[in-house]
Input
Amino acid sequence: MKPRGKNWSRGLTGSITAFVLAAVAMVYLSYALPRLLPGDFVSAMYASSQVTLTEDQEAELRAYYTQDSGFPSYLARIVTLDWGYSYAYLTPVSDLFFEALPWTLLLLGSAHLLSMTVGFIAGVEAAWRSGTRTEKGMVAGMTFLEGVPEISTGIVLLFFFALQLNWFPAVGAETAYAGTTGWERILNIMHHLILPLGTLVLAYVPGNFLLTRNSMMMVLHAPFVRTARAKGLPPGRVRYAHAARNALLPLVTRLGLRLAFMITGALVIERIYAYPGLGSLLFSAIQARDLPVIQAVVLVSSLLVLGVILALEGVYRIIDPRIAHAH
Amino acid sequence: MRMWRFKGGTAVLFLLLVVLGGTSPSGIQAGDRLEEIRIGDGKGDWGYPNPYRHYPRGPGYIRMSWVFETLAWKDEAGFVPGLATAWRYDSGTTSFVFDLRKGVRWHDGRPFGPEDVAFTVRYFKEHPYSWVPMGTVAGAEKSGPHQVTVRLAGPDASFMTYVGATMPILPRHIWEKVKEPKTFDDPEAYIGTGPYRFMAFNKAKGTYLYEAFEDYHGGTPRARRLIYIKAGNPLMTLLSGKADLVNIKPEMAETLKGKGMVVLENPRGWNKKLMINHRKPPFSDKRFRHALAHAIDRQAMVDKAHRGVGSPASFGLLSPDHPFYNPNTPDYPPDPAEARKILASLGYTLEGDGVFHKDGKPLRVEILASNITVAGESVSDRDGEVIKQQLEAAGMRADLVHLEQATTDARVLNWEFDLAISGHGGLLGDARVLNRMIHPDMTGSVNSARYGADPELLNLLAAQIREMDEEKRRALVHRIQEIYADDLPAISLYYPASMSAYNPKKGIRWFYTQGGIALGIPIAQNKLSLIR
Output
């Protein structure tokens, strides 16, 4: 296959133009939507606090936090890559974002990659063994797992592996202020990662498995697979180089969309395991009506969705050249 | 909202697992000087620990209180010396004179003195700190080498609680250069005289690190390091030895006691409350509010929604455990028949559908409910459902609307509601809480009734703050409770059980503070636990 020819880029220009237009719309929506939330930072922070404000105090605080909050200044900040200051922390939003981002990438990135790999291989193998007890058992097991919410899996794993067996820590991404460095720190982080990662992998694998298996079932009876078998190719090559590759498209779509929602996708797990991440950051920001933080996370995640969709266009063309010709 | 409901289910599932299974907390050895103490917290992040950067909630103030100190402090019995060893009120000059502790040093080694206190008063007047009402403070001056006098604009009976035991003293040599305190984020912004020095705060992880201040005037702090961690599940965090102290839900208490943990129960200083939009008919008629009170069975609410843990609240707002509590306030025993009788007297007619009607329209009320933050932890419950059922049983058509807390708060602040479930503490602290929770000037609080329709009540509220004689003030506060319970601009529902649990093997004794820390924070994290 030679995907990077003229055909490959056919139609991409239109997609890029649509992407830019959508991005402009997103910039406005990321400004306007959070402002539709009832209440503001001052009422969210003070209204039910120990502190009772008089009208003057309230007005003074509101004036302080709403200065420089018009759309033109928001636009100007975006153009200059200035993310603004968080109302709650009074620190740059970019600091908050990039403090949380690595943990989200670590947890969700590895969860998606691992669950895609496991789900894909298991799905291919199950389809290849179609009709056998192994395949039926796998389908039954995965269908069951698919129905179990990740919050339940998380609690059960916590109970057995953290509380009963004491094998893994119950909370956090690493032991707070343990003073570890180098490999010791990496091992500490991995140790903390296993339970939340395991919970997410158990939640994501069944979907990937069932999708791959179903796609493979359709492909396995296609003439080109029969031809490959007739040529006497080794079974592994027939499965993966010929059949599975053609069954990959739906899985790539699924992975792409999952990645796009990666920023806020693990909120439940982040809260069960008190794991830091962008989901918790956005959740807290919405509770506190911390508009600069909400705007930044909403804008970045919506641009990520657009970016992933655009990237998928290109990836599809590599996997299945017929798509380029369809334009 | 869905997530929080889910979380409630999760807690029950988890508790069930713990009860069914046997667990053994990891062994912790007691010692004279502990290496560290870890406190678990459900939310984790409460802002930076200085007056201008912590969140305006109790846990934010507590994090600051390890670093900054006040003139007086409180323990489980009441006021104790802080940076001042003694104080007295001079009625002739309407001022408080404080004798300051000698030999106190700031974390940077500089000596503390009366100039710092006088400066702090001036600074907070110029740059208000929302926790300390400076309206009645006229100024402060050094009146001796170790003495400072704080002049009041008029008598203020709540001064010691709201200023003396709440106002963190700032180092003059640092803050006198600071023009924008909110954005001051230098390491110097965290220099206090407290037992712990602030070292680090990780916003994403919600963790805090403090280290003992070895030159602390009150002796060497018991633990070298104090660490706050974010704890998704307090039960798990405590039992697995990851934290030494956590806030817990009442249903966890017996399990934790069985595992050798000490469970503390807060006195009745926090109440769940039904806010009423008394500005709009029919809620503006106090007889209608009386009907609401009779329609609600508060003990049934505790039994159904809280497994019987908690007790009905006083209609007069102050806690029965408060020294100024008036036991003879109007009472509204649960009596749907009485509620229906009052409604009938107001011109409502009970129709065949079991609902009262007036002018051809059914009597319809909307109840706003949300998860309320208690001691820093968001708590979900079924209070809204129970009230809805009870009002319907009394002949009202009740619509329950469950919203996220900030949305509910916004609607209550803007008077866009009929009834709303809310809650607040401070009911065991200074009686100024009555002013904060009743007076119409408190426009920024969803917990305040903001009720100004009764001139006598407003006069009494002003008078009780000015009255420095305790017995006379008690009489005024008694009368305020009577009028409040009769006018009923809001209905105090019940005192939920608020609990903490700690591992006693560390040798630290945690406790709830008399009247709450500072102006009434109901959290068992008093710094005296790590000093004494």
Remarks:
- Chain B touches chain A through 79 residues (CB under 8 Å).
